């Protein structure tokens, strides 16, 4: 047998897929108050009254999509018991659909027969809306339209049109309830007053999970995904504590548990233990920084490179006016013009948001005023590897040479 032959290994996992994004838990834990509020906002539907429009917001991974599916499934089941309610639910994710026009086309096509679809160009907007009202009226009854990640739409037209379609006389048979979901907390404020008053009739907010709520989420998933006793006692509390400390994001906490499980499996360990969680956390953090840096603009990367070289010289924390000359030097190496000091400070703030640098405000009182000091928050070697392409482009600064070299050496071995 080759040393790379595969044997089935089910010793830790009972159903690993239950930890993946696509898995829908059949019950939601740790969201009781929020579900109650959401439930109340949906209540008119079962009473046969006009549905309210609902705006649901909260940061990433706090259960907005999961809670919406859970409650709407329940609602559909319960509505089936009443003869006088005909309820349909249409859920659309607006990621990738960046205008009201595209959303309207998607809605029409979702409602229409596959043989009778309309194209993504081809019709004036008013015509597409008119197709939409026709389809909705043909379906009739109460129709809930869920627009998930609604902040991806660049214009508000559809958020204005759908809630008013009935009062404007475009719909006769259908009663529409619109549910908009967003993790961009500034989205609501960016809406015009008239859109806000119709879309945000009922608002439900989901806060980040705290550690004890995350423990509930993880325990529930443990039972489906792992065999009994596959996890050491402190694994779930530890994942939950990290998750709460980071962003209160259930997706991140579940990813951490999955990564820890995979590491334990790779080690052929009998149990997932503390050490696996620590190692998994380092790996995920590393991936996150690598991806985050790769997504930065070239100037943001050059500014990070400048700060990294100053850190390697032992001169951090540094003020932006100390980083600037190094940044300008790097810009001139690649023949590009440096951004203004103001734009540079904006980039430093973005880097701090990403968690790759830390910025602290200093106050020198009356004489010196306020300023910020910056330093790397992540391991220097990690940042150097994330910046590899930029370093190749702008040249290897003397101070980071050993780190760059060790990157190349690692690759050879
Ligand atoms: N209360 C919960 N109980 C069980 N699983 C949960 C719970 N909350 C979230 N999850 C799981 O965590 C993951 C993220 O949740 P969800 O997709 O609902 O987040 P979201 O708020 O919609 O985030 P985003 O804004 O990024 O879309 C999903 O896999 C979901 O099944
Ligand atoms: Mg979601």
UniProtKB/TrEMBL annotation:
GO BP: DNA replication
Molecular function terms from GO: ATP binding; ATP hydrolysis activity
Keywords carried by this UniProt record: ATP-binding, DNA replication, Nucleotide-binding
Gene3D superfamilies, sorted: 1.10.8.60, P-loop containing nucleotide triphosphate hydrolases, Winged helix-like DNA-binding domain superfamily/Winged helix DNA-binding domain
Domain of life: Archaea
Chain sites annotated for binding ATP: 62-66, 209, 221
AAA+ ATPase domain segment(s): 50-201
Domain Cdc6 C-terminal: 304-387
NCBIfam families linked: orc1/cdc6 family replication initiation protein
PANTHER family in the record: CELL DIVISION CONTROL PROTEIN 6-RELATED, ORC1-TYPE DNA REPLICATION PROTEIN
Biological role: Involved in regulation of DNA replication.
Family designation: Belongs to the CDC6/cdc18 family.
Listed name of the protein: ORC1-type DNA replication protein
